[in-house]
Design the sequence.
């Protein structure tokens, strides 16, 4: 059976939409904002469908800095509403998604005392124009004091602290000796952003049943006679779909989606942000388990962030043409290596230590000549009628960020409910997400959970699955326990064939790259080697209906996808297990 034949037969998620081609609400865009809105609407009992032209969470949402933060730097832009909302949402996520969102100790190295105190107001008034002046300790102290104030009444993280040169060197011995102070505060990290978004999808389906339908690799290609034309990107099959409300949550592609709907807009002006992931034990140790968040020489706020045994370094903020793929260029890599040297000058970093690169476009509003760092990270909603239809309203989300996905989804949901003349039934504020429900947050509670749920698996194996999936690990454990052919991968024993078959059979996996990039951390950690990828393809081929030729093609395509942001990568012959 060919790949096309297999997909045309087994793509039941697409059939669910084509067999009943209407809903109250159609969401276009399966990133975190679209999926959060899908979940919220499903909880309200709305008949809702969501489509994504690629894999779920494969666009802008897959290129985040893995932070859930209030955005202390947005204070200098005067975005107090956004910071307050983001801190509130950060605190909520620490409680509702403890399996993936956790407190993050963040340290700012500071090289001067009073620099920037007098120029900061002018920088704000000029929207970033003029000569850059370094932010000194006094200015950062003011900002962090204001930032702490937003966490009062429900704050879940400690307040900031300052250290002088000696204290800074004791805490971070490898830090640049010219650093005069360090300021340490707490935000939050999201260890597995794609998996958190997939939990939103899972929750939406569970809440809505057959009135909450979702399909990836299904794109909007047009509109005619009041209906949206959807195309299965795997087979090319097209069908019309009708909805009273269309929510355009396609992020940086919002204008392109509206153009396909016959309603061209010019809302977006996103900038490209790239990251690299390093396997550098010395640098990892130098961070002392905390994110280093600081101002580079050009004034750009950048980060060095220990994560999953690797070090994440980012990010850039460059104008980008949406017609071109987003890649992490060699000049950007030079920039990252230089910024590491700015803070840790005695640690050697080179390109051979890069295990992964990724790059994406922020869904920012159009900003003309405004400096990228001063473009608002807030969101707004635009509403218009679908051309040629008096019965369909199109709502476009312009902007937004990972941290505020629940709040922006609530805004979109409330707007859709108003158009449908339906009341909100429940709030998503404080509602556990996916495997965060009942997640054991203490070591003792985790041991107890493992003891009660591990079935025939070892304690270590069950604990690993709990760490990866939260309490939904219960389902993974049951699947693996019943898989008679389960065994550790020969090339990567930390994963088993049963676990990968569970993901392939239950989580909308269409291509091998979906597993490597979004269902697991294999690509991020640099573990998606040709040998590992080939063995995984062999393990999941029976579940996904791949014959030998299809599996070989999937291996080649997956390796290309893993290295898509690396313009220097050259494919080599990929072994087949």
Sequence:
């Amino acid at each position: 059976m060919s790949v096309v034949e297999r997909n045309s037969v087994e793509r039941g998620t697409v059939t669910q939409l084509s067999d009943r081609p209407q809903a109250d609400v159609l969401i276009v865009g399966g990133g975190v904002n679209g999926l959060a809105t899908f979940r919220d609407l499903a909880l309200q009992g709305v008949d809702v469908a969501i489509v994504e032209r690629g894999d779920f969470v494969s666009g802008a949402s897959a290129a985040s800095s893995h932070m859930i933060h209030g955005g202390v730097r947005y204070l200098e832009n005067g975005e107090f509403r956004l910071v307050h909302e983001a801190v509130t949402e950060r605190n909520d996520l620490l409680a509702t998604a403890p399996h993936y969102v956790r407190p993050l100790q963040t340290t700012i190295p500071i090289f001067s005392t009073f620099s920037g105190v007098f120029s900061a107001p002018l920088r704000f008034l000029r929207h970033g124009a003029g000569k850059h002046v370094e932010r000194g300790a006094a200015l950062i102290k003011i900002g962090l004091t204001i930032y702490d104030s937003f966490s009062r009444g429900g704050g879940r993280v400690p307040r900031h602290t300052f250290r002088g040169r000696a204290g800074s060197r004791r805490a971070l011995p490898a830090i640049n000796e010219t650093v005069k102070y360090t300021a340490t505060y707490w935000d939050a990290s999201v260890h597995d952003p794609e998996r958190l978004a997939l939990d939103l999808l899972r929750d939406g389906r569970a809440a809505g049943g057959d009135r909450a339908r979702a399909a990836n690799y299904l794109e909007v290609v047009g509109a005619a006679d009041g209906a949206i034309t959807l195309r299965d990107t795997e087979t090319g099959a097209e069908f019309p779909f009708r909805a009273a409300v269309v929510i355009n949550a396609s992020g940086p592609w919002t204008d392109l989606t509206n153009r396909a709907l016959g309603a061209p807009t010019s809302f977006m002006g996103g900038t490209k942000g790239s990251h690299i992931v390093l396997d550098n034990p010395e640098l990892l140790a130098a961070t002392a388990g905390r994110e280093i968040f600081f101002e580079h020489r050009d004034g750009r706020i950048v980060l060095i962030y220990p994560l999953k045994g690797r070090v994440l370094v980012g990010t850039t903020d460059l104008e980008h043409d949406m017609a071109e793929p987003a890649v992490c260029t060699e000049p950007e890599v030079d920039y990252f290596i230089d910024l590491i040297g700015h803070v840790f000058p005695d640690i050697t970093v080179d390109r051979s230590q890069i295990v992964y690169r990724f790059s994406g476009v922020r869904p920012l509003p159009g900003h003309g000549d405004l400096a990228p760092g001063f473009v608002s990270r807030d969101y707004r909603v635009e509403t218009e009628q679908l051309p040629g239809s008096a019965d369909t309203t199109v709502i476009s989300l312009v902007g937004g960020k990972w941290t505020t996905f629940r709040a922006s989804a609530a805004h979109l949901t409330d707007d859709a409910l108003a158009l449908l003349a339906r009341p909100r039934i429940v709030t998503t504020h404080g509602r556990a997400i996916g495997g965060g429900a009942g997640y054991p947050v203490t070591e003792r509670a985790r041991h107890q959970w493992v003891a009660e749920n591990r079935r025939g698996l070892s304690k270590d194996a069950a604990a690993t699955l709990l760490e990866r999936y939260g309490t939904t690990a219960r389902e993974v454990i049951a699947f693996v326990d019943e898989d008679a052919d389960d065994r550790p991968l020969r090339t990567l024993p930390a994963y088993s064939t049963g676990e990968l078959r569970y993901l392939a059979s239950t989580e909308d996996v269409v291509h091998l790259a979906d597993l490597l990039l979004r269902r697991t951390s294999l690509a991020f950690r640099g573990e998606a080697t040709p040998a590992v990828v080939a063995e995984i393809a062999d393990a999941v081929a029976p579940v996904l209906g791949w014959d030998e030729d299809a599996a070989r093609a999937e291996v080649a395509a997956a390796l290309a996808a893993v290295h898509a942001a690396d313009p220097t990568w050259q494919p080599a012959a990929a072994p087949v297990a």
Observations:
- Residues 1-9, 116-130 have pLDDT under 50 and may be disordered.
- DSSP finds 19 helices and 18 strands in the chain.
